Amino acid sequence: MLLAAWQRRQAPERPLRWLDLMAGCGIRALRWGLEASLPRSGPLELWVNDADADRRALLRANLARLHGGGGGPEALLVEQRSLPAEVLLRQAYLEQRTFDLIDLDAFGCPNRLLQATLQVLAFEGILLLASTDGRSPTGHDRSAAVRRFGAAARAHPASWEIALRLQLAALARETWLLGRGLEPLLAFSDGRTFRLAVRLRQHLDAGEEGQLGLLARCEACGAQASQSMLRLQGWPACACPAGAGRWAVSGPLWLGPLQQPALLLALQQLGAGMEGSVAPASARLLARLAADPGSPLLCWSTAELARRLRLNGPPAVAAVVEALRAQGHQALASGVMAGQLRTDAPYALLLQSCRQLGREDR
Fold it and tell me: What angle do CA 200, 23, 34 make, to 5 degrees?
């Protein structure tokens, strides 16, 4: 809802068209109409679709407040449909209708709908994407990952982030096929649902293709490495004795940032001024994501590091971050998974810092 409200406020006079592609009971679209729109703003078309014809009456009842002065803005037009998502998207493409914001909240993996969705997303438009496929992109169903993502997915302590990066890579490939660019706005998960927001650019940024690559992790020693698909070469040695290590490789996945901190700060400020619209848990999530752009790439679990070092318990993430920064490296607490940090520090230095903090805790 906040992203819709933010988009409306970026160009209050411009006509906008929003699509809730798999609306369910319609509560999201209702909130868009009541909370995200502005009085005395440009026309807003709100398209609400659900393929289940049995929900038609429920949708109509829930959206009634948006019709004819029942609380919705005067310049609001509501279009209700009961079509399979593929049919609505193809019809929109044939009729040259584009949407400024599309919410695709699929049950399972949404990848079969990505190309059709992107074809009707306006330039600078925002796609809100949700997936409940938690097995294949987290390394628990490797065959399904190949089928659905065209990628290898291996088990990893930062499995939620790997899943988000695999989803972003799938989106990027479909976007690039259209000759367009992709800008991630935010990405998060609770372990069951994986959510992304991206903006469609008319052109690719310079070097954007370099954000697609591979991530490797040695299951024996825990070392990690990455490389772009544009610069593939042999993998470096891990921290194991010569010949003892073995890289488990995931990808292609998105190597670049996951969040736009400036946008997230703007959403925080917007939410603070919309009393009752943002739950406390959502406000905390925004703050956490705003503090972590998702770069550097390599993410580490302090619990796993403590286990490898045989410490009594994991060191505090904040303490490890501070120690690494003091030595001149980038380090941030992960906004995606608790108890994890990301850094560009060498693995040996990361282990040394954790070991030292473990001694100080005794």
Answer: 85
Tokens of 205: 């940024």
* Sequence-separated (6 or more) residues with CB below 8 Å from residue 73: 33, 37, 38, 39, 41, 44
Structure tokens at 223: 């070392």
What does the pLDDT look like over 148-179, one tens digit per residue? 999 999 999 999 999 999 999 999 999 999 99
Distances (CA, A) of 56 to 32, 52, 86, 87: 19, 7, 18, 17
Give SS3 for 181.
strand
The domain ranges of the chain are 2-290, 299-360
On whether the 2-290 domain is CATH 3.30.70.20, my answer is no
Residues 6+ apart with CB under 8 A from 362: 312
> CA-CA distance, 119 to 99, in Å (whole number)?
10
Structure tokens at 55: 């929900």
Q: Rounded to whole angstroms, how far apart are CA atoms 237 and 223?
A: 9
Q: At what angle do helices 347-360 and 302-309 cross, to 10 degrees?
A: 80
Q: Which residues does the chain have with pLDDT short of 70?
A: 68-74, 360-362
DSSP codes joined into one string, 85-128: HHHHHHHHHHTT--EEEEEEE-SS--GGGHHHHHHTEEEEEEEE
Q: Which two tokens stand for residue 9?
A: 């406020």
Tokens of residue 166, six digits? 């695999």
Element (H, E) at 341: strand 340-343
CATH number of 299-360: 3.30.56.70
